[in-house]
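INTERNAL AUDIT FORM
Audit reference: QA-55
Scope: verify that the stored structure record matches its stored sequence.
Auditor: D.O.
Record contents follow.
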Amino acid sequence: MRIRALAAGCAALAAVTIPATPGVAAITVGAGSSVWAARPAPAGTPPPEPGSAAPIPTAAPCPKAVAPKVVRSPKPTPPPSVPEHRVVGGDLLATPGLIVPPSAPTPPKVTATSWLVADLDTGEVLGGCGPHEYATPASVQKLLLAATMLPRLDPTRVVTVTRADLDIAPGSSAVGLLPGGRYRVETLWLGLLLQSGNEAANALARLGGGGDGVAGGVRAMNEQARRLGARQTHAVTPSGLDAPGQFTSAYDLALIARVCFADPAFRRYALTERTRIPAQKALRAKGFEIQNENQLVYRYPGALGGKTGFTDYARHTYVGAAERDGRRLVVTLLGAEPRPERSWEQGAALLDWGFALPRQVSVGRLVEPGELDAEPAPAVTGPADAVPPGTASAQPAGTTSTDGGPGAGMFVALAVGALAITVAILAARRPRRTDRGAEPPSRGPSRSDIQAGVVVDSRDSSEFTR
């Protein structure tokens, strides 16, 4: 009788632990925090109580400006998409379309194929279009060089430029450094950031690359990208000149820019309007002046600087930052055309849009340096299902879901059922009882993928070369 009573109690406990709330699925993350996602509800089901669930940012097609047709180089083939990389910073960022906060005004129309606006200080992502879509960087890759080498190189050190440093694509941007010329490292940085000097990029990568020279510098850049969480970024050249396998994303550029703007020396260089390249008396060469080619510096109130870029593959790329009312925002955009608006103007329009949003809104966040390399928490449930590109990721290990399938209640029921079976088996070993055996408990269900309001948008396949 005691065995029967125990079994009856187990069955009752299992019944009450299985949730039966239709229309809303709770995903418990970590120690007690929850987010909510909508799922289809039966007809006539009343809506959830106000305030019972946090609103999920909405997705829509990216507003596009019409650009004149241009002759473009063949589009480079991006690496295979990695689902885990597309959800860095939040599941909602894994969309090729637009992702903005609820009730946010429509962003301005731009020609960029992808872009992102984020808060430099809090790391909150305010919105984006295809933030994790692969694209070629052009000269905005020089920001990764700066994020890597600024801490390594003494700005007062005087160095000699070599002929190998001047091995750049004919017609590409250059400062005008001379082989055999002696310049301070600070001068190289100014030439890099004001005039996008590709020979300055080679020299800085060589100086920071140790015994391996430029190759060592590029390797350090890729190590830095990984440390920052920029998992879709791979550098092949220090300058951003096109090379097979060289890619980045709007999200990754924001991670890199955040580190750059945290450096006082970078902020000073990026806001410098003009400087003078010193004369080289030993080479009988006169000095000359260079100016900052980022028009945001001159024309946008509160501008903090940034970086321009252009190649046939990448088209126009841009990173810019500004401060308003104590709030610092950064914008990154890739694959833009210069008409009807130039890249810095498109960036300025997106910054205006970001500053108009309330401070607390967010659709994701910029991960902290080293965060993705931290030891992962031990998994509690079985392996997660694969997540197709353009969808939200499966919930993290150690979470439970009732979204469209068995969840926490079912796992409790299985555990209680297993306990009842064990008790029954032990009891069956008494004399005059026959062991009839029992089916093992079924394997726990896999976690459901969650589709979080992502809308796929057709994208322009444009790219430039510079």
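Auditor finding: record pair retrieved intact. The first strand starts at residue 24 and ends at 29.
Action required: none
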